[in-house]
Amino acid sequence: MTATRTDSRETHADRGGLAGLWQFRLDFYACLTTRRDELFELAAAVLCTDGPVRTLVDLALAPEHRRGHGALYDGLNHGRIEIGRLRRAMTTLPLPRAADGRIVLAADVSPWLRPDATSPDRSFCHTYGRSEKTTHQMISGWPYSIVAALETGRTSWTALVDAIRLEAGADVAAVAAGQLRDVVVRLVEAGQHTETDRDILIVVDAGYDVPRLAFLLGDLPVEVLGRMRRWSSPAEVRTLRPPSGAAPGVAHGYDRVVQYGGGGARCRARRRRRAARRRPPSR
User: Fold this and answer.
1) Read out DSSP for 255-266?
2) What is this structure's pTM?
3) Which pLDDT tens digit goes with each residue over 105-152?
């Protein structure tokens, strides 16, 4: 009888998970305002295809994509998604929590590297260990500010809650603060966090200005935890002054995003001049 009760509980849990998945599929379909049938099947093909998606032709041949090859391109060119509604639907999903039931959100910048693309709005993305393990590289692509919910334990799985593409010259801390504010407000509106719950913990890396984030989010039920660099101190304030005529900002890990194709030679020349000034005089 014990085995029967356990199986019954597992069956109810599976049914609850399937019901939540079915509701999210309905909410996602409602977010598609134009060419919704094609976009819905295209999303299903991306999720169900084995391995990374390299060409659109492969998606057109997936069993989940029941329409023709021309409908795929028509959906990509003319389809529309109501982003605000999709963001609200994402916050209604069950979120992983810490062992004490607390919501833990992590914010970071993840680049989508496209060195061979011809899009004019690409930015320099900081990468590490792409060709060699100790090499830092700046590769053109699209940086995205991502917010994900974390869980307790040794796992690489996270629940993506929100993503915003960073434009050239964007203030990373300001964008992250606005993004986190919107996510927390949506979580409260969806009933994921109440007044009796512990404050939401926000975890960021050393590339963020933690005191500034804490100040900008001071009116929300959140706590900000960030890793500090070895050379930084609580009293130190870093400023950014781009070279004259160059695109504003620098890549992720600092304060802003640099636009691809502008001011690279000037930045290198300025770094050489600074290194020469720091070099001790020869005796």
Assistant:
1) SB-PBTTSSHHH
2) 0.69
3) 999 888 877 777 777 777 777 776 666 656 677 777 888 899 999 988
